[in-house]
Amino acid sequence: MSVHEIEVTINGKKYREQVESRMLLSDFLRETCGLTGTHVGCEHGVCGACTIHLNGSAVRSCLIFAIQVDGQEITTVEGLTKDGELTLLQRNFIECHGLQCGFCTPGILMSTTDYLQKNPNPTLQEIKEMLSGHLCRCTGYEGIIKAIQKTIDESNLNYEAERR
Amino acid sequence: MKPAKFDYYCPKTVDEALSLLEEIGFDGKIIAGGQSLVPIMNMRLATPECLIDINQLNDLQFIELDGSKMKIGALTRQAEIEMSDAVRKHLGLLSEAVPYIGHVQTRNRGTFGGSLVHADPSAEIPLSLMTLGGTLHIASKDEVREVNVEDFFVTYLTTDIMPNELLTEIHIPLPEGRVGYSFHEISRRHGDFALVAAACQLSIDSQDRISKVRLVLGGVDAVPLLITEASELMEGEYLSASLLNKIADIVDEVVNPESDLHATADYRRHLAKKLAVRTVKTAYERARGENNECS
Ligand SMILES: Cc1cc2nc3c(=O)[nH]c(=O)nc-3n(C[C@@H](O)[C@H](O)[C@H](O)COP(=O)(O)OP(=O)(O)OC[C@H]3O[C@@H](n4cnc5c(N)ncnc54)[C@H](O)[C@@H]3O)c2cc1C
After folding, report:
1. b/e map of B153-189 (b: 16 or more CB within 10 Å)?
2. Domains of chain B by start residue, with CATH
3. Whole-angstrom Cα distance, residue B135 to residue B81?
4. Considering only CA atoms, which residue is closest to atom 38 of ligand 1?
5. Is B46:B37 a contact under the CB 8 Å cutoff?
6. CA of B118 to the centre of ligand 1 (A)
7. Which of A34, B22, B26, B77 could pair with B141 in a Cys bridge, judged by C-beta atoms 3.0 to 4.6 Å apart?
8. In which pathway does it act (chain A) (predicted)?
9. pLDDT tens for residues B142-162?
10. Ligand 1 within 6 A of CB of B195
């Protein structure tokens, strides 16, 4: 009972693979599927580097077993871009120096993308609370917060431009 | 760190889950959100032989208003409770407490029932349920039994639930009349476990006298601590400075905190007194309609 076949959709593509029941989803994504954008840090849910979207919600992939996602949909950081174009949030991370070493970045992008979809106009405090689910050792979060705020402002501008 | 080997079962119905639990017994462990269990397995503090994954049991995922009570399925995600308008309207204490659980990324996965069964003495959901009162519905292959929340928590990480049993739903009475509630916690950082947490829900009569009150403290004993002595003292009284002082004295006497890396027992005792007074005061003001933070 400890090896199983699973089928999952990751970034729009179907993967059918054999997994041992104890394989963490984070290891499955990196080692079996070769999607190394999902980073592995603490492996107990604190650092946030391994955050992905499972059926549209940001979750820790180190606290889920690969076998549990049979038949479900996953997006990893590789799946954020559309036709090779970085998203507004990704571009603003570059522009506002939202990263140095970049280790925490994929997880933060995944959490923020999900969060802004559900809460398009968060306060500064709310942004900080959402980010408290991620450890970044380089930037002191300043650039990251700026990148998120700029994205919110620009999305609202786009929204207003579209309405006009 | 990686977990040890285990066999995996993913039942599709509650009946199937209960049969599996009966068969596997002590060798098995239920996995719900996995936000407490998987870290423990990754560190090999737990090495269950079998995991029974209840994530396909959609029947256990609901928030339902039923007359004078709210029914919440054990598998309901914490983030759903946080977002629920019905919970905000009728059980405001829960809406106020749940956002303090870890981070939104863990609440997206962690469940209401998982937090109750995990029974961490400083966790927000056990504390809130002890304050709101209610019953836990626990099923095994042969029966469904109801346990009052007062009888559910046994000691650190231990509840009244047996290895062949499944927590299915939780029923919480809706508070009636002029009601106020309040939740406060002190933690080292947003998202960390509380050093001490306090919750209070009370009702007042037409003269503003306290008619019913539950004050509960977390992080000061092995289980969420219902301060019954404080209820006895407050019922039938108006809230006053001297009454609040007496509550602090009672709290000082009944709490039983421990020292650890994060805080000394003395500091926890100090926080317990301060937070108890603060929550009772806020709850009372809200019941009188003075504190408009409360809806
Ligand atoms: C970084 C981080 C920070 C956190 N911070 C907090 C915090 O501040 N406050 C807090 O309260 N929690 C915190 N948690 C834990 C919280 O997120 C968990 O969700 C919760 O305690 C457990 O719920 P779960 O659904 O994940 O349960 P699981 O981890 O799946 O299970 C926990 C236990 O309950 C049993 N169980 C689960 N469901 C049932 C059921 N229906 N019937 C019988 N047994 C069952 C399991 O067998 C296991 O023993 C944190 C977690 C992480 C990773």
Report:
1. beeeeebbbeebbbbbbbbbeebeebbbbbbbbbbee
2. 7-53 (3.30.43.10), 58-173 (3.30.465.10), 178-287 (3.30.390.50)
3. 18
4. B114
5. yes
6. 6
7. B22
8. Alkaloid degradation; nicotine degradation
9. 999 999 999 999 999 999 999
10. no
